[in-house]
Design brief:
One of its GO terms (cellular component) is external side of plasma membrane. By secondary structure, the chain is mainly β. It has one helix at residues 2-27; strands spanning 34-42, 47-54, 62-73, 79-90, 94-100, 110-118, 136-138, 149-152, 157-159, 164-170, 177-181, 184-186, 189-192, 195-200, 211-217, 223-231, 238-244, 249-255, 269-274, 279-282, 288-292, 300-308, 313-321, 332-337, 344-349, 359-367, 370-378, 382-386, 394-403, 414-419, 430-438, 441-450, 459-468, 472-481. It has 1 helix and 34 strands.
Length: 482
């Protein structure tokens, strides 16, 4: 009985120790706290960059965590931003996060702190927030220099219609500083005795050289200012399409819209990404780009066109079967043969695209104020017989081709001018005579009538012979229309 009691006590102690160990292991992530918080500043982008690491993770351990971040301005109690950042944390990993400030960072002192929470299913409830890190202070004003007045931000680029905050910083408290936007005096909000901020809402595009803002110390006449660069809003590309003329190269084209380029900043750039192949190409032109086709079995393409400038990105996508986007090249070697008064034979050549590729070709005949169209399907070279033409008439004929099975676009036209030959009379002449005697002379007039091929009305031809004793015989040829 005593032996049983001792064994039972030993078992209970072992079980308690195991539970205590498990509890310590499972609860350990709840105590993980961010450490070594460092904050740096990027004045050009007006961003605070944070980095820290989490102490306490074992080697090769990974844990999903949430970090709460607070940012204060001027004093720690004035919290202006609070948010969360989620990520998977690895052992000995340095974490990075950044924040963009609407107010130029040079205009006020900022403070940052971080705390963490284990957000992993392997961690049991309750999951508690760690303690906060100490406030990390960021003060840019100490490094500005000794000038009496500063204006920020320097050379900022924004889109038309954006909201912008500008501030001035004076080395000593003053109440005699005036500020002007495009020559018009404006009034701001005083953040502290040395700093005033100006909120510009819905800024307009004024000129490509930028919008002028300056402040002046009235007593000393010191002037400091900035140029605010306002760009047009980057538009989404319109009418994006791709086509091939030879199954070797795709040409993609689009309407880029308004050019957002400024003298200090380049225009928008464009790039193509094809999802099936995973390939990407940076385009050299604003409104078109070529894509080399490989000799594989890929028939379907899914393109994304990405447009981007210094402040925005836009994208559009299309998907298509290659055989449905064929735009044939212009036919060539158009020849008119066996031209007669009423017929002609027309031949032309097409640029080969592939075996058994069928073209639909359209022929137009222009003449006598009319246009007649004919369609014909071919695989290699084309031929068409033009009939029922008018004799001795000027004509113009032209041809263009498209893919017959999946019509996409016609090629460009190519044509030739030609004239039909003169036709022989279709029946015998209508001939008669007229004899007149006047004062001893006799006049004999021969008439005949014919419809010439170049005239729409019959023409009467008359040969008049006049016999007079004193003059002999005189001839006169006349023409009249009936």
């Amino acid at each position: 009985m005593a032996l049983f009691a001792v064994s039972q006590a030993t078992f209970l102690l072992a079980l308690l120790s195991l539970r205590t160990y498990q509890s310590e292991v499972l609860s350990e992530p709840l105590l993980l706290t961010p450490e070594s918080l460092k904050v740096s500043i990027n004045s050009t982008q007006q961003r605070l960059h944070l980095q820290w690491h989490v102490h306490g993770l074992t080697s090769h351990q990974e844990l999903k965590m949430v970090f709460q971040i607070e940012i204060s301005r001027i004093k720690t109690s004035n919290v202006i931003w609070a948010g969360k950042y989620s990520t998977v944390v690895k052992w000995d990993q340095v974490l990075h996060w950044s924040w963009e400030s609407e107010l130029p960072l040079e205009c006020a002192t900022h403070f940052v702190r971080v705390r963490s929470l284990a957000d992993d299913a392997r961690v049991p409830e309750p999951r508690l927030w760690s303690r906060w890190t100490s406030w990390e202070e960021v003060d840019v004003q100490n490094s500005l220099g000794h000038d009496p007045l500063f204006v920020f931000p320097q050379d900022k680029l924004v889109e038309e219609g954006s909201n912008v905050t500008i501030c001035y910083v004076s080395r000593s408290p003053r109440n005699d500083i005036s500020c002007y936007l495009e020559g018009v005096k404006i009034y701001g909000e005083q953040l502290d005795p040395n700093v005033s901020a100006f909120n510009l809402n819905n800024v307009p595009f004024i000129r490509k050289r930028g919008t002028n803002f300056f402040c002046k110390v009235n007593e000393s006449g010191v002037i400091k200012g900035i140029v605010l660069f306002v760009t047009k809003v980057l538009e989404e590309p319109k009418d994006f399409s791709c086509e091939t003329r030879d199954f070797k190269t795709l040409k993609c084209a689009w309407d880029p819209g308004t050019d957002t380029g400024l003298p200090k900043y380049s225009s928008q750039s464009y790039s193509l990404f094809e999802s099936f192949s995973g390939k990407k190409k940076v385009c050299e032109q604003r409104n078109w780009c070529t894509w080399q086709l490989t000799q594989d079995s890929q028939e379907t393409y899914n393109f994304t066109l990405l447009a981007e400038n210094h402040v925005r990105r836009r994208s559009v996508s299309i998907s298509f079967n290659l055989t449905h986007r064929v735009h044939p090249m212009t036919p060539f070697n158009v020849v008119l043969e066996n031209i007669s008064a009423t017929n002609a034979s027309m031949t032309w050549k097409v640029h080969s695209i592939g075996n058994h590729f069928t073209f639909l070709c359209q022929i137009e005949l222009h003449g006598e104020g009319k246009v007649i169209q004919h369609n014909v399907s071919i695989e290699t070279n084309g031929q068409y017989f033009l009939s029922e033409l008018e004799p001795l008439t000027e004509y113009m004929t032209r041809v263009r081709c498209a893919a017959a099975n999946h019509f996409w676009k016609w090629s460009e036209w190519i044509g030739q001018n030609f004239s039909t030959l003169e036709a022989a009379p279709s029946k015998a002449l209508d001939v008669w005579r007229n004899v007149k005697s006047v004062l001893g002379s006799r006049t004999v007039t021969l008439f005949w009538r014919v419809r010439c091929s170049y005239s729409k009305r019959p023409i009467c031809l008359a040969l008049r012979l006049t016999v007079r004793p004193d003059l002999g015989v005189a001839f006169q040829l006349g023409v009249s229309y009936t």
